[in-house]
Design brief:
Distance between the termini: 28 Å
CATH architecture of the largest domain: Alpha-Beta Barrel
Structural class: alpha/beta
Number of strands: 11
Strand content: 15-25%
Radius of gyration: 20 Å
CATH class of the largest domain: Alpha Beta
CATH superfamily of the largest domain: Metal-dependent hydrolases
Number of helices: 14
Largest sheet: 7 strands, parallel
Length: 308
C-alpha cells in the first residue's frame, strides 16, 4: 500500500519476487475528489492485476479515519467489478476507533459490515482494538488479518488478540508493516517478536507457539491473501517458492525442533537461497537477478540529494 506502486511492481518483477500491491487511497485528506482518488487505485489494479504472473493488485483504502463510509462503499463496488481484493488498516490505534464510535454509534467493523464491505477478499492490517462482536463478524464474513507485531510495538499501538482470532478460525498472516515502523522488514526475526508479544499480552508462555508463528509467516500469509491454492507451502501443483535457511550457525545449536530453532534463533541474514516460481533469485546469500551493490550506491546518492 501507499505510493509509486507502478514502480514497485516493475522493481518486483525485475528482481523476480511476488507482490500483492495497492495504491494507498487516502480520501478525506486529499485535494482530489473521492472519485478521482478511487480512479487512481482502480486504474493501477486494472493494469497490474496478474501482471507477469508475479503481481496481484488490490484496492487500498487507507483506514477508517481517512476514508468515509460512502467512499468505502464505492471501493467495495469497484473491487467487485475488478475482481480484486481490498487491503485496509483498521482498528490500529485506540483514539480513532473511539472517535469513530462516538460519531457513528458503532465500531468500524460493525459499520463496514452494515454497508456490505466485509467479504472474504478483505485483509485488515493490525485489527488491535476489536471487540468480541467485531471478531465474530470478521469470522462470519471470513475476513483476514495481517498481524504486524514490530510496528505495533514501535508505535505503541497495542497488541492484537491473536489467541481469540486463531481460536475462532480467522485467517491470520504475519506482516512487517513499512520501513518507517519496522526498519528491518525481517520476516524471520518478526516470527520471534510475534510469538513473544502474544506471550506477554496474555501472560502465558503457551501463546502463539513457534510452529504457529512459522505457519503464520508462510501458509497463513498465503491464506490471508487468498493465494493458498498457489503458494504458501511446498506441495505438488503449487508454485515453486522456496527459501533455504542456513541453520549451521552456533546460535541454532542444538536443533531439537526445527520450528523452535527457526522462530527463536533465526534471522533474515541466515537465508541462503531463494527460489521464486522455480527461478533462483538468491544463491548462497547473493542476489542473482540484479546488482545489489549498484542499487545501494544509487540509493545512497538519491538519499544524499534528498537531504541536502
Amino acid at each position: 500500500m501507499y505510493f509509486f506502486m507502478e514502480e514497485v511492481a516493475k522493481a518486483a518483477v525485475e528482481i523476480g519476487i511476488r507482490g500483492v500491491l495497492s495504491e494507498g487511497l487516502v480520501e478525506l485528506f486529499s485535494s482530489k475528489s473521492s472519485e478521482e482518488v478511487l480512479k487512481r487505485g482502480a486504474s493501477f489494479a486494472e493494469r497490474y492485476h496478474g501482471w507477469k504472473g508475479l503481481i496481484w493488485a488490490a484496492l487500498g483504502p487507507h483506514a477508517e479515519y481517512s476514508c468515509s463510509l460512502e467512499f468505502l462503499e464505492r471501493v467495495r463496488e469497484e473491487a467487485d467489478r475488478l475482481g480484486v481484493g481490498i487491503h485496509m488498516h483498521l482498528a490500529e490505534i485506540k483514539p480513532p476507533v473511539e472517535e469513530f464510535v462516538k460519531k457513528h454509534g458503532k465500531t468500524p467493523v460493525q459499520a463496514l459490515d452494515e454497508i456490505g464491505f466485509l467479504k472474504r477478499d478483505v485483509i485488515i492490517a493490525h485489527g488491535i482494538y476489536l471487540s468480541d462482536e467485531d471478531l465474530n463478524i470478521l469470522k462470519r464474513r471470513d475476513v483476514a488479518i495481517a498481524y504486524n507485531p514490530v510496528s505495533n510495538m514501535k508505535l505503541a499501538s497495542g497488541a492484537a488478540r491473536i489467541n481469540e482470532m486463531l481460536g475462532l478460525g480467522i485467517r491470520v498472516g504475519l506482516g512487517t508493516d513499512g520501513p518507517g515502523s519496522n526498519n528491518t522488514l525481517d520476516m524471520i526475526q518478526d516470527m520471534k517478536i510475534a510469538s513473544l508479544l502474544q506471550k506477554l499480552r496474555y501472560m502465558d508462555p503457551r501463546s502463539l507457539p513457534a510452529r504457529s508463528a512459522v505457519r503464520m509467516a508462510t501458509r497463513g500469509g498465503a491464506e490471508a491473501l487468498g493465494l493458498d491454492d498457489l503458494i504458501g507451502s511446498i506441495e505438488a501443483g503449487k508454485r515453486a517458492d522456496i527459501v533455504v535457511i542456513d541453520t549451521k550457525k552456533v546460535r541454532y545449536q542444538p536443533i531439537r525442533d526445527p520450528y523452535t530453532a527457526l522462530t527463536y534463533c533465526g534471522s533474515g541474514s541466515d537465508v541462503r537461497d531463494v527460489i521464486v516460481d522455480g527461478r533462483i533469485v538468491v544463491r548462497d546469500g547473493i542476489l542473482q537477478t540484479a546488482d545489489l551493490e549498484e542499487i545501494l550506491k544509487r540509493f545512497s546518492d538519491v538519499v544524499a540529494d534528498l537531504f541536502q
